[in-house]
Amino acid sequence: MSRGMRILFITSTRLGDAVLSTGLLDVLLARHPGARVTIACGPVAASLFDAMPGRERTIVVTKRRHDLHWLSLWRDCVGTRWDLCVDLRGSAITLFLSARRRLIMRGGRRQGARVAHLGALLGLSPPPLPVVWTAPADRERARAILPDGTRWLALAPTANWVGKIWPADRFVALAQALQAHAVQAGHGPLRPVVLYGPGEAERRMAAPVLAALPDAVDAGGDHALPQVAALLARCQGFVGNDSGLMHLSAAAGTPTLGLFGPSRMTEYGPAGRCARGVAAPGPEGHAPIAGLEVATVLRAAIDLLDAAGPAAGDIPGDAPGDAMSVVA
After folding, report:
1. What DSSP element (H or E) covers 307?
2. Which sign does the torsion angle of CA 92, 93, 98, 102 carry?
3. Contact at 8 Å (CB) between 40 and 73?
4. According to the UniProt entry, where is the signal peptide (predicted)?
5. Per CATH, the architecture of 134-323 is what?
6. So where are the chain's domains?
7. Which residues, 6 or more positions from 189, have their beta carbon under 8 angstroms from its beta carbon?
8. DSSP 8-state symbol, 2
9. Which long-range contacts (CB under 8 A, 24 or more apart) does 51-55 make?
């Protein structure tokens, strides 16, 4: 009997990993209707779960010296008798909580996609694809920012470290080439939307792209994650660096092309109903992203948009807490 079931779900401090874990969480929600779920995650990912049905509480885990953040989390959770504890961080914390069942994902580098590792925790093959949850207000705001009647191309030119960042001038050249292709192919104009994370550093990384694309919409910095997901769902396609935004786009069902240099595409490629990655030439994990040419990305982007077809960018229904992606 799962009604009233209490679930503790400990997921990542990083946005990309937290997004990848949503497919597993969505399966648990389907298996246990009426369950009350407590999410434990880092501050960057916290708003990702705001519109999730069944969410009782989000505990923001802020890293502290000597791993004292785990002690704080234990104090927040020890007073509850949990029916299920899922720990994707591989910590020992759930062993010291009252729980009927525990699922602990062990650490260490593994071969294959991260979503497959997550799915294996529940014995799921193929693994569930990530999802995003949005509320009607999120979608209404997204429609106001990106109105109907325009085809939108999302660009995400930032990342959490410099080795992942494709040069800004190449994003500009790519956007201009895709705009020209769309007109030549008879699809109509394609207008860029530039997305980036909060903070001055992210804004500075995105600034050269915005400056060189005067028709671009600046959609970065100050939106909660469900609102960002709703913006992405309105776009006909997404091209961006290996980042949390890339994973959020794929989870939203937007045709997504992720760009990879010295990061592992086989493990952290975008997972979604229409998502692909393109990697710089060279050994995985060591190839400089500067080796990724505009022509290569352009071909991949055109192939992706052609495969997605005219339905790309259609908006899902307005049910509260709508999960905007498909679970395999």
Report:
1. helix 294-308
2. negative
3. yes
4. none
5. 3-Layer(aba) Sandwich (3.40)
6. 6-128, 134-323
7. 150, 151, 179, 182, 183
8. -
9. 51/133, 51/134, 51/135, 51/138, 51/226, 51/320, 51/321, 51/322, 52/25, 52/133, 52/321, 53/29, 53/133, 53/320, 53/321, 54/29
pLDDT in tens, 4-54: 899 999 999 999 999 999 999 999 999 999 999 999 999 999 999 999 999
Strands (E), 91-213: 102-104, 133-134, 151-156, 190-194
Domain 6-128, CATH among 3.40.1280.10, 3.50.50.60, 3.40.190.10, 3.40.50.2000 = 3.40.50.2000
Query: What does the alpha-carbon distance between residue 196 and residue 26 come to, in Å, rounded to a whole number?
Result: 26
In this structure, the chain runs to a length of 328
Residue indicated by tokens 């694809």: 129
pLDDT in tens, 202-224: 999 999 999 999 999 999 988 99
